[in-house]
Amino acid sequence: MQANGTIFSVERGYDDSKFDEDGRVKRTGTLTTASAHIITAVIGSGVLSLAWATAQLGWIAGPVAMMAFSCITWFTSILLADCYRSPDSVTGRRNRTYMEVVRANLGGLKVQLCGIAQYGNLVGITIGYTVTTAISMVAIKRSDCFHENHVRDGCHTSNNFFIILFGLIQVILSQIPNFHKLSLLSIIAAVMSFCYSSIGLGLSVAQIAGGAHPQTSLTGKPAGKSMTAMDKMWDTFSALGDIAFAYAFSTVLVEIQDTLKSTPPENQVMKRAAFIGISVSTVFYMLCGVLGYSAFGNDSPGNLLTGFGFYEPFWLVDLANVCIAVHLVGAYQVFAQPIFAFVESWSKKKWPESTFINRENSIDLPGGCVMNFSPFRLVWRTSYVIFTIVVAMIFPNFNDVLGLLGAASFWPLTVFFPIEMYIAQAKIRKFSFTWIWMQILSFVCLSISLLAAAASIRGLIKHLDTLKPFKSES
């Protein structure tokens, strides 16, 4: 058997039974592992804004919007599962990444557009994670201040110190080659995300059980003295962007499917895994959004654990924010490493003779470990982290950042490319009934994404009128 230029054969000492047809070690993933990976990928920091999003949309539109995004994501995940192999969904050649799937099924300009969407999304997420982590670090300090001084106001702290601290940590971690491939990282991320999400859910239940009766509405926070009808409209669209961000995980589905063993067919297993993973996540999202709205009503904070809907028990609020910070410290690297790898690979091809770019020095570490050090990697990766720090200082608003990220990634990566790839692979005839309703679905999602993006950009600009860049406080 030949794959990637390597021949595996019994005569040469290799056992074909240990390798798949593409020459890689045989995949061992199952329905259970794939479902767990999907749940881990879905449930993240986006859950913290769902109570606020529900407060903007109300008792009817809030749950309906979450269910609609869930169904759309599940449907397009099914389409994406059939595109993992090409040209045939069962016996065709494997495509190991989202970009490879787009290249195999669409090719041409759409591959470049996919690259722009993917890498733009990764850059945005690293900025968003920088903002979110800093806010969580500040929240720990504020929570302790509230507890010691027995007040529910004041205790404001600058975000910038914690943004810089987060950046320094990322500068160090970014020098570790293949940091994102550490298996322990995924385990820690899963534990941390479930921990802080569960704490937020539990505190909401406790708030309701304690007799909280906040004002709620079928249509969400009403326009009035504190908010104009125009503000209400834009906040509604921004809330849709926040929900979209919570479901923006399609780019990792191909990598998850690539872990599945060949029998039964990967696409069949992946479809069941997508249903299980998205269903479990949606139930969790519904609980967080609805119970958070029940607990705090129309004044639900933008971030459930840092907007200080909760003040006590302060140690539990601190624990939740520590979990957020730990989760996002590693998650930043998961999303930044593909950016690092792309630029470094491109630079080596562009300047193959450059000593600065291509030189690698071995450094002996305690314990007999050896790490490769590259001057170019140090300069480039440090520069990128500084860039994310600077942007995070300029745009420190949690909800608007999440809304913009959700709007920018949901339509192209979750809806457009899966639909277009499925149409191409299944050879669906243009202007047929199936083609028409798929295009309508794509257009509706595009419209929602554009409105959500406009609302988030408006929110960022609006906050710049009251916030001084590089001097933001929480």
Describe the 3D structure.
This protein is mainly alpha-helical and 474 residues long. It has one domain: Amino acid/polyamine transporter I (Up-down Bundle). The protein has helices at residues 31-42, 50-82, 98-105, 109-149, 160-173, 183-209, 229-246, 253-257, 266-296, 314-350, 355-358, 375-394, 398-426, 433-464; strands at residues 2-3, 6-7, 85-86, 93-94, 361-365, 369-373. The radius of gyration is 23 Å and the shape is globular. Residues 1-14 have low confidence and may be disordered.
What's the topology here?
Elements: E1 2-3, E2 6-7, H1 31-42, H2 50-82, E3 85-86, E4 93-94, H3 98-105, H4 109-149, H5 160-173, H6 183-209, H7 229-246, H8 253-257, H9 266-296, H10 314-350, H11 355-358, E5 361-365, E6 369-373, H12 375-394, H13 398-426, H14 433-464
Antiparallel strand pairs: 1-2, 3-4, 5-6
Helix pairs in contact: 1-9, 2-7, 2-9, 2-13, 4-5, 4-10, 4-12, 4-13, 5-12, 6-9, 6-10, 7-13, 7-14, 13-14
